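Q: Structure tokens for this one, please.
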Amino acid sequence: MQERDSVSSEPTVVTLTNRRGMTIILTNLGASWLSCILPLANGQRDVVLGSPNMTKQKEQEVYLGATVGRVANRIKNAQFSVNGIQYNVTNNQGVHCLHGGKDNFSYRIWNISQQNAHQVTFSLISPDGDQGFPGELKVEVNYELTEENQVVIRYQHQTTQICPVNLTNHTYFNLAGEGAGETVLGHELEIQSGYYLPTDLDGIPTGEWKSVANTHFDFRCVKTIGRDFLQDADQKAARGYDHTFILDDTLNNARQPIASLRSPNGDVQMNVLTTMPSMQLYTGNYLISVAGKTGEYVPYSGVAFETQFPPNAVNHPEWGAQFSPISQPEQIYISETCYQFIF
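A: Here is the predicted structure, written as tokens:
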């Protein structure tokens, strides 16, 4: 492993390739995943949405491929209390805090601290008070491309004060190809989850954990994303799926898939494995005239699987420690999510 501590004002692009010819392209701008190129029998196919160049990547506001934090998803009214102390963080979605606030991790140039042919580690130090969050936070995000066509993302963090931390990746996938001109509504999806979190009109969970049984959120048996699409009030409020699924707690060990996505013609499958307790399913509802590699992206051009603690969990301690994003000072926290491609 090559050791270095590289950071500059301009983004650096990193390419990883395995012996089977699969390639992923990353950048230290937002510790982001830019491309995922699969060597299929009929040619190479990029199955990840991304910007046409680094200038557009800096300008886009839909978190294409980004590592988001300190706290992924939403914090209601951009405030929370820990140990009786109230904190106000920056609001960037109305009165709420989304994905860490106005100057979140997605737009920063990270250090490249380690790199070899198969993996790279991006690191970042977030100072005490950053976006209103307490404590200095040290974060490392390691991407590894394995010979089994897995992209393994490992997160490690440590804070100097008690603080919520909820890191995730915001890559959008389209297994038909990002330039195929197809939405993801024809993709088949399976999610091992018995509960989802209904939200209000701002995307904030109401607090209820609702059984997926007899709802359009039941993906326990394979179905196309489009089959029950926009058929209920929860989806209509969000313009699609933008909801958290509570994962089967026997599977969140990163050894068994918690979700599987298949291309419309079945030639590519992606399994998602994770150590996290929940996952946000987002069908790209607000991909509106976004500059892409081969053209403009429109709603539903890609789907994101954001493994994480539930949104606004810092304000729902009744959900229990398993779902709490609270990090204690001077402890090292590690989580992992794997995207495995079968083709």
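A few notes: Residues 54-59 form the longest helix (6 residues). The two ends are 29 Å apart (CA to CA).
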